[in-house]
Design brief:
Elements lengths: L19 E2 L1 H4 L15 E3 L5 E3 L5 H9 L4 H25 L5 H25 L1
Antiparallel strand pairs: 1-2, 2-3
Helix pairs in contact: 3-4
């Protein structure tokens, strides 16, 4: 079997025996489902993440599970949102509109925190 990457949410290693449903191994005929062959391959991580591509093909499933969005793209999107909030705050002051500065500042702080976490992960990967 091909190796699965860890859970992208909690970082836990996927236990093939407990966290993974494989129809050939786990499906048993029942009165209500005597011959379907079971559901597609899926993962149920302890953190609550559930993942299924709708495929019964192991290699296709592993490829989809192991495909992750590059961290650089995440940083780029977060920084884009941060710039938008800064522009909105500046325009609000210039035009005399009421813009929730406190809400925008809180979001910018959260974004900056998220950017730092993602950058730390990038450094770990390199």
């Amino acid at each position: 079997m091909s190796e699965l990457k860890c859970c992208p949410i909690c970082g836990k290693e996927i236990d093939i025996e407990n966290d993974l449903y494989i129809p050939e191994r786990d499906w048993k005929p029942t009165f209500y489902d005597p011959d379907s062959g079971g559901d597609p391959i899926n993962i149920h991580c302890n953190c609550g993440l559930e993942f299924s591509t709708g495929t019964y093909d192991w290699n296709e499933f592993v490829k989809a599970w192991n495909t992750r969005t590059p961290m650089d793209n995440i940083v780029e999107k977060l920084e884009e949102r941060e710039r938008y909030l800064e522009r909105a705050m500046n325009e609000s002051h210039e035009n005399g509109h009421r813009f929730s500065e406190e809400k925008a500042m809180n979001e910018r702080i959260a974004i900056r925190y998220a950017i730092n976490i993602v950058k730390q992960e990038i450094n770990k990967e390199n």
